[in-house]
Protein backbone atom coordinates (compact mmCIF):
# COMPACT_ATOMS: atom_id res chain seq x y z
CA UNK A 1 0.00 0.00 0.00
CA UNK A 2 0.96 3.63 -0.45
CA UNK A 3 2.86 5.14 2.40
CA UNK A 4 2.00 8.62 3.61
CA UNK A 5 5.65 9.58 3.07
CA UNK A 6 5.47 9.11 -0.71
CA UNK A 7 7.38 11.96 -2.37
CA UNK A 8 4.67 12.62 -4.95
CA UNK A 9 1.93 12.67 -2.31
CA UNK A 10 3.98 14.89 0.02
CA UNK A 11 4.78 17.31 -2.81
CA UNK A 12 1.13 17.45 -3.79
CA UNK A 13 0.06 18.13 -0.19
CA UNK A 14 2.68 20.86 0.17
CA UNK A 15 1.44 22.62 -2.97
CA UNK A 16 -2.15 22.40 -1.75
CA UNK A 17 -1.19 23.78 1.65
CA UNK A 18 1.09 26.52 0.28
CA UNK A 19 -1.57 27.68 -2.18
CA UNK A 20 -4.33 27.43 0.42
CA UNK A 21 -6.29 25.01 -1.76
CA UNK A 22 -8.53 22.21 -0.59
CA UNK A 23 -9.05 18.77 -2.12
CA UNK A 24 -11.78 16.14 -2.08
CA UNK A 25 -12.06 12.67 -3.58
CA UNK A 26 -14.78 10.47 -5.09
CA UNK A 27 -13.40 6.95 -5.13
CA UNK A 28 -14.57 3.73 -6.67
CA UNK A 29 -11.82 1.16 -7.32
CA UNK A 30 -9.44 2.62 -4.73
CA UNK A 31 -12.06 2.09 -2.03
CA UNK A 32 -11.06 5.00 0.22
CA UNK A 33 -7.31 4.37 0.15
CA UNK A 34 -6.71 7.61 -1.76
CA UNK A 35 -8.47 9.75 0.85
CA UNK A 36 -6.83 7.79 3.66
CA UNK A 37 -3.38 8.37 2.17
CA UNK A 38 -3.88 12.14 2.22
CA UNK A 39 -5.53 12.06 5.65
CA UNK A 40 -2.35 10.57 7.17
CA UNK A 41 -0.20 13.51 6.09
CA UNK A 42 0.86 16.25 8.52
CA UNK A 43 -1.58 19.18 8.57
CA UNK A 44 -4.10 17.28 6.42
CA UNK A 45 -6.86 19.34 8.00
CA UNK A 46 -5.60 22.43 6.21
CA UNK A 47 -6.16 21.00 2.71
CA UNK A 48 -8.22 17.77 2.86
CA UNK A 49 -11.99 18.26 2.84
CA UNK A 50 -12.86 14.56 2.62
CA UNK A 51 -13.86 11.80 0.31
CA UNK A 52 -16.63 9.43 -0.57
CA UNK A 53 -16.47 5.84 -1.70
CA UNK A 54 -19.02 4.95 -4.33
CA UNK A 55 -17.85 1.55 -5.46
CA UNK A 56 -21.26 0.35 -6.66
CA UNK A 57 -22.73 1.99 -9.77
CA UNK A 58 -25.98 2.70 -7.89
CA UNK A 59 -24.06 4.90 -5.44
CA UNK A 60 -22.53 6.80 -8.33
CA UNK A 61 -26.08 7.50 -9.45
CA UNK A 62 -27.80 8.04 -6.10
CA UNK A 63 -25.08 9.78 -4.12
CA UNK A 64 -23.28 11.79 -6.79
CA UNK A 65 -26.04 12.08 -9.36
CA UNK A 66 -24.24 10.44 -12.28
CA UNK A 67 -26.93 9.75 -14.90
CA UNK A 68 -27.80 6.05 -15.24
CA UNK A 69 -27.77 6.46 -19.02
CA UNK A 70 -24.13 7.57 -18.91
CA UNK A 71 -23.19 4.54 -16.80
CA UNK A 72 -25.16 2.21 -19.09
CA UNK A 73 -23.59 3.69 -22.21
CA UNK A 74 -19.95 3.79 -21.07
CA UNK A 75 -19.80 1.48 -17.98
CA UNK A 76 -19.10 2.49 -14.37
CA UNK A 77 -15.37 2.26 -15.12
CA UNK A 78 -14.92 4.80 -17.88
CA UNK A 79 -13.51 8.23 -18.62
CA UNK A 80 -16.99 9.65 -19.07
CA UNK A 81 -18.36 8.42 -15.74
CA UNK A 82 -15.19 9.34 -13.87
CA UNK A 83 -15.28 12.88 -15.24
CA UNK A 84 -18.93 13.24 -14.22
CA UNK A 85 -18.05 11.99 -10.72
CA UNK A 86 -15.35 14.65 -10.35
CA UNK A 87 -17.60 17.47 -11.53
CA UNK A 88 -20.62 16.36 -9.49
CA UNK A 89 -18.56 15.91 -6.33
CA UNK A 90 -18.63 19.72 -6.02
CA UNK A 91 -22.32 19.42 -5.10
CA UNK A 92 -21.40 17.36 -2.03
CA UNK A 93 -18.00 18.69 -0.98
CA UNK A 94 -16.93 22.27 -1.59
CA UNK A 95 -13.24 21.93 -2.46
CA UNK A 96 -10.89 23.61 -4.92
CA UNK A 97 -9.52 20.36 -6.37
CA UNK A 98 -11.95 17.51 -7.03
CA UNK A 99 -10.59 14.09 -7.92
CA UNK A 100 -12.52 11.01 -9.01
CA UNK A 101 -11.14 7.55 -9.71
CA UNK A 102 -12.61 4.35 -11.17
CA UNK A 103 -11.05 1.28 -12.68
CA UNK A 104 -10.65 -2.45 -12.97
CA UNK A 105 -8.68 -4.18 -10.23
CA UNK A 106 -9.73 -7.72 -11.10
CA UNK A 107 -11.76 -9.72 -13.61
CA UNK A 108 -15.52 -9.66 -13.47
CA UNK A 109 -16.25 -6.04 -14.27
CA UNK A 110 -16.44 -4.26 -17.60
CA UNK A 111 -13.04 -5.44 -18.77
CA UNK A 112 -12.48 -6.04 -22.48
CA UNK A 113 -9.59 -6.27 -24.91
CA UNK A 114 -9.63 -2.46 -25.10
CA UNK A 115 -10.05 -2.07 -21.33
CA UNK A 116 -8.17 -4.87 -19.56
CA UNK A 117 -7.83 -5.46 -15.83
CA UNK A 118 -5.44 -2.82 -14.50
CA UNK A 119 -7.06 0.00 -16.49
CA UNK A 120 -7.65 2.96 -14.19
CA UNK A 121 -9.42 6.23 -14.94
CA UNK A 122 -9.09 9.41 -12.93
CA UNK A 123 -10.34 12.94 -13.43
CA UNK A 124 -9.14 16.11 -11.76
CA UNK A 125 -11.45 19.13 -11.72
CA UNK A 126 -9.67 22.39 -10.97
CA UNK A 127 -11.10 25.78 -11.76
CA UNK A 128 -13.12 25.53 -14.93
CA UNK A 129 -11.08 22.65 -16.34
CA UNK A 130 -11.30 18.88 -16.00
CA UNK A 131 -8.31 16.69 -16.82
CA UNK A 132 -9.08 13.08 -17.68
CA UNK A 133 -6.43 10.38 -17.45
CA UNK A 134 -6.32 6.70 -18.29
CA UNK A 135 -3.53 4.44 -17.09
CA UNK A 136 -2.82 0.73 -17.37
CA UNK A 137 -1.07 -0.82 -14.39
CA UNK A 138 0.04 -4.39 -13.76
CA UNK A 139 0.06 -6.47 -10.61
CA UNK A 140 -2.19 -7.40 -7.74
CA UNK A 141 -5.17 -5.24 -6.85
CA UNK A 142 -3.09 -3.66 -4.03
CA UNK A 143 -0.25 -2.93 -6.46
CA UNK A 144 -2.66 -1.37 -8.97
CA UNK A 145 -4.19 0.84 -6.26
CA UNK A 146 -0.73 1.93 -5.06
CA UNK A 147 0.43 2.77 -8.57
CA UNK A 148 -2.80 4.65 -9.23
CA UNK A 149 -2.48 6.77 -6.09
CA UNK A 150 1.15 7.60 -6.89
CA UNK A 151 0.23 8.62 -10.43
CA UNK A 152 -2.70 10.72 -9.23
CA UNK A 153 -0.36 12.54 -6.81
CA UNK A 154 2.08 13.26 -9.64
CA UNK A 155 -0.68 14.45 -11.95
CA UNK A 156 -2.27 16.73 -9.36
CA UNK A 157 1.15 18.21 -8.60
CA UNK A 158 1.86 18.86 -12.28
CA UNK A 159 -1.62 20.32 -12.73
CA UNK A 160 -1.20 22.66 -9.76
CA UNK A 161 2.22 23.83 -10.94
CA UNK A 162 0.77 24.69 -14.37
CA UNK A 163 -2.55 26.11 -13.14
CA UNK A 164 -3.49 29.77 -13.02
CA UNK A 165 -5.74 30.19 -9.95
CA UNK A 166 -9.50 30.31 -10.49
CA UNK A 167 -12.30 29.26 -8.16
CA UNK A 168 -15.01 28.30 -10.67
CA UNK A 169 -16.02 24.71 -11.42
CA UNK A 170 -18.37 24.31 -14.36
CA UNK A 171 -21.15 21.77 -13.81
Protein described:
This protein has a single domain (7-162), classed as Maf protein. The chain is an alpha/beta fold and 171 residues long. The protein has helices at residues 7-18, 33-39, 57-64, 68-74, 79-89, 141-162, and strands at residues 23-27, 48-53, 97-103, 119-126, 129-136. Mean pLDDT is 92; it is low at 167-171. The longest helix is centred in the last third of the chain and has 22 residues, at 141-162. The protein has a 5-stranded mixed β-sheet, with helices on both faces. 39% of the residues lie in helices and 20% in strands. It is globular. The termini are far apart. The chain contains 6 helices and 5 strands. Helix 1 (7-18) runs parallel beside helix 6.
Amino acid sequence: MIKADSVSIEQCAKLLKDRRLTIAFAESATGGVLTSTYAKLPNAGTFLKGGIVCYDAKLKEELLGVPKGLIDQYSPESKEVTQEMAVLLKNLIDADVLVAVTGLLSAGGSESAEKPVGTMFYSIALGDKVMNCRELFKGTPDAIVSQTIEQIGKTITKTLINHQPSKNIVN
